[in-house]
């Protein structure tokens, strides 16, 4: 594992932007660093819509928004003097995507497991994730990616960035 | 196609009063206007509408106009017919609010998945002439789990030693049924004590109502697990044990109960059942405590939960005779 081969799990939320910024500030003076922005696409369940057309329209809007925010996260790294050659992007599409087929896709059932798989495959020695700061009740009822990662990650460093980390 | 239902009713039910005969319905979109005496013609069969079903919650009758109790005229069989209805509403679990969606398509898919699996309600989906997704369900004659528990005229200790072991074995089967859904990338979505029926003649425990769906979740199966945990607490305690009930006990009858003994997300409800009934074995109480406010490590999957239940079932003396009766567990 290379600890300077960093995987930032980015989901377009405010905490994940903070995780990107934190990473940029931590590594900007380190040479030979490689940052991969990992986006795991999550599309709403088709079950929630009355028609296929409504669902596709919502998915299309979301994908545009996700890609716009991913570009913004890349911009954040660049503005912190991370060289463009040191920045990778990995966009894992949803297995239920109505737009694309891919050999590798995410079912959305365990984002933590998806991150783990990409980390192992990419030999990333450091994983960074933002934390939403949810209550214990919310974690219990809906799950938490960062809590799941803390349970499952044993082979590399995990940075869990809370909101307002200065 | 006949315009009046009377012609078809006269053939199959000659005594049906003419004044109550309604319309023949082939398009179920306007389900609010489909009522007693109407006949729905679906997939080549006629269904006389007897009534709208309703749900009893907090002592109130809440009519569900999209769910009709019907009689299939060709066979005389009574069935429940759920018509296509989408809605979004908020639900509260303790202090947490969440958006929930009603999805006919989800229920149809699960009905297909569990076809022939008697751990679940059975039924089929047909499309009406407008392509609405109509689910025709077999009626399960039996009691809801909480009603069955309420009717047991025994003390908790007697219940725990005589009836509970069998119920626990049945519960493990019901939890495995939910694990089967999850393995097939489906969630039940509305696991509640009144959605688990004990069928009168077979004594099978059967899940009903699969049409709730939720938005994006970090763990899409966590809510199902929460529901299963709530049912476990009900089973182990024989009924819901509230803080108020504990407060009425003499101090000598129970150890002091703290906030950490209560259920997470339902702080009025006791999760540490051993505090009320000290003979509950630790291994079993520890599983209950996974759903308490004290806990910070949750079961990550129903499979993990099943594994803990099985350990109890195979190890605890209270289940010794049930192990012989339920070798399949």
TrEMBL record, chain A:
<feature type="domain" description="UspA">
    <location>
        <begin position="5"/>
        <end position="161"/>
    </location>
</feature>
<dbReference type="Pfam" id="PF00582">
    <property type="entry name" value="Usp"/>
</dbReference>
<dbReference type="InterPro" id="IPR014729">
    <property type="entry name" value="Rossmann-like_a/b/a_fold"/>
</dbReference>
<dbReference type="InterPro" id="IPR006016">
    <property type="entry name" value="UspA"/>
</dbReference>
<protein>
    <submittedName>
        <fullName>Nucleotide-binding universal stress protein, UspA family</fullName>
    </submittedName>
</protein>
UniProtKB/TrEMBL annotation, chain B:
<dbReference type="InterPro" id="IPR011009">
    <property type="entry name" value="Kinase-like_dom_sf"/>
</dbReference>
<protein>
    <recommendedName>
        <fullName>Serine/threonine protein kinase</fullName>
    </recommendedName>
</protein>
């Amino acid at each position: 594992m290379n600890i300077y081969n960093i995987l930032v799990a980015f989901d377009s939320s405010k905490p994940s932007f903070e995780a990107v910024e934190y990473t940029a500030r931590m590594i900007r003076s380190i040479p030979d660093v490689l940052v991969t922005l990992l986006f795991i696409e999550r599309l709403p369940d088709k079950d929630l819509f009355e028609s296929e057309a409504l669902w596709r329209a919502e998915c299309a809007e979301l994908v545009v928004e996700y890609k716009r925010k991913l570009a913004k996260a890349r911009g954040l790294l660049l503005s912190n003097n991370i060289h463009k050659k040191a920045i990778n992007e990995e966009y894992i599409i949803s297995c239920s995507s109505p737009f694309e087929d891919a050999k590798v896709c995410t079912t959305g059932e365990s984002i933590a497991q998806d991150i783990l798989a990409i980390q192992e495959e990419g030999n990333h020695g450091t994983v960074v994730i933002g934390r939403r700061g949810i209550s214990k009740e919310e974690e219990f009822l809906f799950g938490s990616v960062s809590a799941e990662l803390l349970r499952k990650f044993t082979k590399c460093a995990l940075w869990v960035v809370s909101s307002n980390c200065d | 196609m006949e315009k009046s239902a009377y012609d078809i009713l006269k053939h199959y039910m000659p005594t049906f009063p003419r004044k109550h005969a309604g319309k023949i319905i082939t398009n179920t979109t306007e389900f609010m206007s489909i009522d007693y005496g109407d006949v729905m013609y679906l997939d080549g069969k006629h269904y006389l509408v007897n009534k709208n079903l309703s749900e009893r919650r907090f002592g109130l009758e809440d009519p569900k106009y999209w769910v009709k109790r019907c009689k299939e005229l060709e066979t005389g069989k009574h069935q429940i017919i759920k018509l296509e209805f989408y809605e979004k509403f908020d639900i509260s679990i303790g202090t947490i609010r969440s958006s929930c969606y009603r999805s006919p398509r989800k229920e149809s898919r699960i009905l297909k998945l569990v076809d022939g699996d008697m751990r679940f309600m059975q039924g089929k989906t047909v499309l009406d002439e407008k392509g609405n997704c109509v689910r025709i369900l077999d009626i399960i004659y039996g009691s809801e789990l909480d009603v069955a528990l309420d009717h047991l005229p025994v003390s908790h200790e007697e219940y725990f030693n005589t009836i509970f072991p069998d119920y626990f074995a049945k519960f493990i089967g019901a939890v495995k049924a939910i694990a089967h859904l999850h393995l097939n990338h489906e969630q039940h979505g509305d696991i509640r004590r009144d959605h688990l029926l004990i069928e009168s003649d077979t004594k099978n425990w059967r899940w009903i109502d699969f049409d709730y769906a939720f938005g994006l979740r970090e763990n899409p199966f966590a809510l199902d697990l929460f529901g299963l945990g709530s049912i476990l607490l009900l089973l182990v305690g024989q009924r819901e044990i509230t803080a108020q009930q504990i407060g009425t006990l003499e101090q000598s009858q129970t150890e002091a109960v703290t906030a950490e003994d209560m259920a997470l997300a339902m702080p009025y409800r006791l999760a540490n059942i051993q505090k009320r009934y000290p003979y509950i074995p630790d291994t079993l109480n520890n599983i209950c405590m996974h759903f308490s406010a004290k806990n910070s490590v949750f079961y990550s999957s129903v499979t993990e939960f099943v594994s803990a239940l099985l350990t109890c079932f195979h190890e605890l003396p209270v289940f010794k005779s049930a192990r012989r009766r339920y070798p399949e567990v």
